[in-house]
Amino acid sequence: MNLMTAQSEKRAGEIGFRKTVGSFKKQLISQFLTESMLVSLLAFIVALGLSLLFLPFFNEIAEKTLQLPVLDISFWGIALLSILITSLIAGSYPAFYLSSFKPINALKGGFKSGKLASIPRKILVVFQYTISVVLVIATIIIYRQIEYAKDRPIGYDQNNIVAFALKEEKIDRHFDAIRQELIQSGMISEVAASDHYIGSIYTTNGGLEWRGKDPNMTDQFYTMRITPEFGNLIDWEITRGRDFSKEMKTDSTGFILNEAAVKYMGLEDPIGEKIGWADGEYHVIGVVGDMLNISPYDQVRPTFYVQQANRPWLLNAKIDPGVPASLAIEKIEEIYAKFEPSIPFDYKFLDQEYAKKFAFENRIGKLVSFFALLAIFISCLGLFALASFVTEQRTKEIGVRKVLRASVYSLWQMLSKDFAVLVLISCLIAVPVALHLMGRWLQKYEYSMEISWWIFGITLLAVVTFALLTVSYQAIKAARTNPTISLRNE
Q1: Burial class (CB within 10 angstroms; exposed 0-12, middle 13-18, buried 19+) of 284
Q2: C-alpha closest to that of 111 among 120, 119, 99
């Protein structure tokens, strides 16, 4: 729409001649809409080829299995409808605009559009660049939010820990034997059991009773059942009290709270506090620093850790740092086969499981960045073509200025400033839009970054630079042209 309108003066003679020899306005409208449809059809053919080429790459990024349903008749029906709608939208304004030229004005020397004629073209340029700037800002904020969460302290050591399950037998019957064999192998430094993967606690419990609890309070705690070696395995930080100990028989009714739980319960001195839970009474023996127990984007939830030997089903083994992981896994699998001979060995590295928590946001970031690059590329193409047209319109003016000793820089400045203004207007519109949209996106994360001003500054600088580089080629080319050629042609 933008380019066809921009080329209106070039086609003024053609339109004037056709009207003179008897062409009706509806025939001209039909011609321009047909041209638009042909362009849309060619674009669809190219797009279909590019889709087939890049669909595997897209599926890999988006973790999808999308396919083009080329054998489905409805697909082609929707495709033809899309071509038709695109053609009508893109060709409607130029068709009615160009067909309205008065033939006598066109044949006398070309249709000279007024100042208002360029407004639609400028609006389209501003609209395109506004979308581009919003997408660029969104891309930066998404990646910054991911890095912000990745840099967050998780409160424990997840490196070199491999987790695997014993499924057929109760773990309390074989835990000590498995642990002893693994440590004696010389490849494993510690083994502990738990009922969840570390960093992925989903069991919650309520109905706890403690001194000072509000009677109307509906409490909820994340719960993890562990063996005494667990704290040493993950190297958690005991901030008050002590860790679980095999030598302390009373620890079977002991609780270890995290700092979030202490604050949640309003306990000033939690060590030794009695807590009623289920059908028994427990006592707090220690407090650990807050550890991420679900998502790196959420706040740490109140959590208590308790020993219940008959409940944990997951073994966590810490590989000695000096041992290659592949050799350690082979040894673990060999020992595992003694206790679970009929079940294939299945294991997970905790650091890799933690990295998967960022997979969804990473996919969003990659997809948005591709769309942002595509939007900028399309905007620059439109700006490049529009700059070519404006430069051609001002050929005579440029020739006269060169004769009067205007420098290349002054001519470049003259031709570029109008486009720079349009891009700056786009940025002024895009910044509050992006701030609103991304602010709402960040609200769904409890642990989120603050949007910094430099994100907008870098984006604006980059977009304006790309726009000026796009325009500069045409501007410098026109400024370096021999003025005698342009003036002779005029």
Answers
A1: buried
A2: 99
Dihedral sign of CA atoms 86, 89, 92, 98 in order? negative
Residue with tokens 């495709």: 79
Q: In sequence order, what DSSP letters do the residues of 232-264 get, joined into one string?
A: HHHT--EEEE----TT-GGGGGEEEEEHHHHHH
β-pairing, 347-349 vs 161-165, is antiparallel
Q: How far apart are CA 410 and CA 4, in angstroms?
A: 29
Distance CA 157, CA 280 (A): 32
Contacts 24+ apart (CB under 8 A), 397-405: 398/478, 398/479, 398/481, 398/483, 398/486, 399/481, 399/483, 399/484, 399/485, 399/486, 399/487, 399/490, 400/483, 400/487, 402/479, 402/483, 403/483, 403/487
pLDDT digits (tens, 9 = 90+) for 449-478: 999 889 999 888 888 888 888 888 777 877
How many alpha carbons fall within 13 Å on the CB side of residue 249? 0
196-197-198 Cα angle (round to 5): 110
Q: Rounded CA gap, 467 and 250, in Å?
A: 72
Cβ atoms 447, 294 nearer than 8 A? no
* Tokens representing residue 200 in the block: 């992925």
The most distant pair of C-alpha atoms in the chain lies apart, rounded to whole Å, by 107
299: which 2 tokens? 């706040």
**pLDDT of amino acid 487:** 63
The number of CA neighbours under 13 Å toward the Cβ of 445 is 18
| Residue that is written with structure tokens 């994100």 in the block | 455
pLDDT in tens, 252-284: 899 999 999 999 999 999 999 999 998 789 999
Distance CA 234, CA 251 (A): 19
Cα–Cα distance, 252 to 309 (Å, whole number): 9
Distant-in-sequence, close-in-space partners of 288: CB < 8 Å, separation ≥ 6: 155, 231, 236, 237, 238, 239, 256, 257, 258, 259, 305
Mean pLDDT of 168-187: 80
| Three-state SS at 285 | strand
Is the predicted pLDDT of residue 44 greater than 80, yes or no? Answer: yes
* pTM higher than 0.85: no
Residue 27, H or E segment: helix 25-62
